[in-house]
Design brief:
It is a single chain. Helices cover 74% and strands 0% of the residues. The chain is mostly helical and 121 residues long. The protein folds into 2 domains: 80 residues, DksA, coiled-coil domain (Four Helix Bundle (Hemerythrin (Met), subunit A)); 40 residues, no CATH class. It is flat, with a radius of gyration of 19 Å. The chain starts with a helix and ends with a helix. Keywords: Cytoplasm, Metal-binding, Zinc, Zinc-finger.
Length: 121
């Protein structure tokens, strides 16, 4: 991968991280400013369900930030764009679709098949 491509993915990852952090700040601001208790039981249940979904989404995004940070580290270390299993280059199309990818499509499919087999046991 050439330096221009690496810089493109570095910027894309940084932008993605900034977007996630901005959304998290928005969620936090709303949580702090909105009442958590609704007088009506149905409204309260609906509100609690909405917040539960929102907090689960933020938790998934928190985990995503650690994967973004790992991808940025791989760029800095010169390992970005190479499969962690086979050492082969990951296609630009795959990295465009999933910039945090650590395996080629083939290696990922093999990994998922092995995971499925071990879960079935």
């Amino acid at each position: 991968m050439n330096p221009l491509q690496l810089e493109y993915f570095r910027q894309r990852l940084w932008d993605w991280k900034k977007q996630i952090l901005a959304e998290a700040e928005g969620t936090l601001a709303v949580l702090q400013n909105e009442p958590l208790r609704e007088p009506d039981l149905n409204d309260r249940a609906s509100s609690e369900t909405d917040w539960s979904i929102e907090l689960r989404t933020r938790d998934r995004q928190r985990k995503l930030i650690s994967k973004i940070d790992a991808a940025l580290r791989r760029i800095d270390e010169g390992e970005y764009g190479y499969c962690e299993v086979t050492g082969e280059p990951i296609s630009l199309g795959r990295l465009e679709a999933r910039p945090i990818a650590t395996m080629t499509v083939e290696a990922q499919e093999r990994h998922e098949r092995q995971e499925k087999v071990s879960r079935d046991d």
